[in-house]
Amino acid sequence: MIRENMTTETTSEKLDFKRILPVLVIVLVDLMGLSIIIPLLPLYAARFGSSPIVIGILQATYPMMQFLGAPILGRLSDRFGRKPILIASQIGTFAGFILLGFANSLWLLFLSRIIDGLSGANISTAQAAITDSTNEKTRTQGLGLVGAAFGVGFVLGPIIAFIVLAASGQNYQLVAFTAAFFSLTSILLTTFWFRETLTEGVDPSAARKRPFSFGVIKQALGRPAIGFLLVIMFFYQIAFGGYEQLFSLFTLTRLGMDARDTSGLFVLAGLFIIVVQGGLIGKWSKQKGDRWLVLMGVSTLAIGLIGTGLTPAIPVPWYDKVKVLDSLAGQGALRVAIQTIDINLPDAAARGWFGIIWLLIASFPAALGGGVLHPAINSLITKSSEKSEVGGMLGVSTSVYSLANAIAPLFYGTLFQWFGGPVPFLVGGVILAVLWFFAPRVVKV
Question: In this structure, what DSSP letter does residue 339 have?
């Protein structure tokens, strides 16, 4: 009897990888489609004469619509099951990509992102499915693997976009249709491979709850065990989202790095996050607990952002101002006159290795914190929620995350414009340092 109990306990501590594999593959395919489009959107909008402000609004449209749509679909997944809501969400994403491929005006670009954003509960519903398929001992590892699939998708997506553009002669429409192909693949995988994970039926109280109201977010924020976690989620993504979106502009103006150089750093950081979320986070969660992960993530991300802001203004040794300007001007019919590019590039006389080495060192704690926080926070949220409200709470979490994603480029961009490149990173780091100071007193799970 004792041996049987020990076997059951040991088994419960092991993640059932077979059960969650369909979810991980679906997330990977979904994110490949999304990340194919993200680098292309500014150029797509520029084709229709958009100003930088309009391009920024376009980039914020998807997360803002997701902020509105994710809690509704998350709550509906508690009521009707994960599978039908996941399929409905993926169909909306597919429709958005198809519309993007046929877009011949700016308003159609906006409409495509609105449709995709409102139906963008793919990730929160997948997280709810992972929660259904794990226990408290394996949940953080499962959610970490979702984050790893997320990271792999974001690494592979831009590579696929580059290949499609090179093979098609810069055909933006074909890139959009390629993203639609991945979205259609995810629909088929969900329909024929994914098995419903909400197997114990619907709690009657969940069926009586309203699908969504802004009061849901207010109620979640008012719950001591969940509210502060949502606050951490919001400010973490303000800081880290702005870091991701303005990093290339910072490296350009601070170190003279062009898009090719910076993309190499992104791939390196992405691979590091994959290692953390795919392997280390599960081990750390079991050994240290999710509370430790959250505190460690906030502190390391704060250190990484402040370190990034303090990067010395020393251009990389291979920096050539003329070549950088030439790469910024573009090629072919979309090329602009170099004289019209209004950007402050560093002085080539100060070239050296110190700046890039400093930035690389600062990037690792930033990537570590950014890699562990999202799954660790969501794991704590699910452990503080009733089973009947897990999907809804993860929907609220995704909503808060999306709102931060919409605000981040505007917040960082304003600080960057008014006070210079280092300031937004320093401000983001200070915000997280303040959160780290209060977190041990509030996060008790």
Answer: G
